[in-house]
Amino acid sequence: MDTGLLIKHIHDSLEKKANNESRDQDLTLMQVSILIELKHAVNGEMTMKEIEHRFHVAQSATAGIVSRMKKRSM
Asked: What whole-number percentage of the chain has pLDDT above 70?
């Protein structure tokens, strides 16, 4: 098996396990990761663009993730 493919399989398995374990808190691994970054950010703030770059995700994905996090916090 190709090393890159093996690493992807391992990553996907770990991500699935983490998402399943954080389901009780109604969070995904990505949301937890963003919350951790915000905790360490200056003034606890990051722009959407900073989140996109930090996590290598598209603007639309970032908007969806942040939108769902906002809805949960209300």
From this structure: 97
